[in-house]
Amino acid sequence: MNGEALVKHAHQFALELPFTEQTWPFGPEYDVYRVGGKIFMIATTLRGKPLINLKADPQKALLHREIYKSIEPGYHMNKKHWITVYGGDDISPELVDDLITDSWHKVVDNLPKRDQKRFRPG
After folding, report:
1. Is 24 helix (H, G, I), strand (E, B) or coil?
2. Quick check: 88 and 68 in contact, CB under 8 A?
3. What residues does 44 pair with on adjacent strands?
4. pLDDT tens readout for residues 72-104
5. Over the stretch 20-71, which tens digit does the pLDDT of each residue have?
6. Distance between the two ends of the chain, CA-based, in angstroms?
7. Which alpha helices (H) appear in the chain, and where do they start and end?
8. Which among 102, 113, 61, 67 has a CA at the least distance from the CA of 83?
9. Distances (CA, A) of 84 to 6, 52, 113, 120
10. Does the pTM of the predicted model rise above 0.90?
């Protein structure tokens, strides 16, 4: 999946997640996706390469970086808790969906209990 397809797919998938909002607090070149007011994904282009930044469990982040050459420590983010995903042959739409879903849940897990119940009823 190339970089442009990655960002397009990520945008569409992220907006399908419950209570997701897209904002531009850092300027029009940064698409910021939030749940409960907290960021779970940022899409932008760096030196001509489209990318997405996602929250990740530190252990999973290390594993992903070992397995996928197109996943690196989070660009301009906390390297322990964020990953950056670039387009590449090793990146599939299913992997992107899983990484975005994990990021969304990681953010919701850190919200107050009442918000967690609202965002994940049942």
Report:
1. coil
2. yes
3. 51
4. 998 888 888 999 999 999 999 999 999 999 999
5. 999 999 999 999 999 999 999 999 999 999 999 999 999 999 999 999 999 9
6. 35
7. 3-16, 58-67, 93-109, 113-119
8. 61
9. 12, 6, 29, 26
10. yes
